[in-house]
Task: structure prediction
Amino acid sequence: MSPAPTHPIDTKGHPIILIGLMGCGKTTVGKMLSKRTGMPLLDTDAIIEEQTGCSIQDIFREHGEAHFRSLETALLRYLLEQKIQPAPIISTGGGIVVRPENRDILRRLGFTVWLNVSVRALLHRTKASTNRPLLQSPDRHAILSRLLSERRPFYREAAHYRLNSTRMDIPTVVSHVCRRAERFFDNLPPHGLDEEPNTPQAS
Result:
């Protein structure tokens, strides 16, 4: 039997969504957040791999990035329309914010948290990674710097809450997310996410 959650949150049936560049800690934070809140964890990359029977790397290689982004959009639409219960923690792929439609869906779907991490930290965390299609280059620093520069405005647009988690350990990050999620959902207007609360962001 799983232990009882230590920080259950009434999300009004909406998920908590983690966004950010590859290596920012979405999966690790998502797992601890799931245990702490009792909410199930969904990983968009894992779902797409299960649905297609292909790894993300193979999808990129055989069909291209645009096709993969289409799969992400279709999955987000499904999650928005089906309103899966119990509401999950959703860990997303690093580039899910690239499409404007995705950014809109993310804000309507649930409480979206941007885990903002420095390039130096991202480089350290991804140094042993061999399965990230966009990092298949000898100059990973240049790639991560470019991606963060390009996507920073997209993450900012999609997120209800921006957390600079570079120097935080995972339990601290999870505690911050839990507190902000509680505040967000406690202040949710009667019409829900179509009329969003004015939630301040951390820098």
About this structure: Residues 23 and 125 are 6 Å apart (CA to CA). The chain has a mean pLDDT of 89.
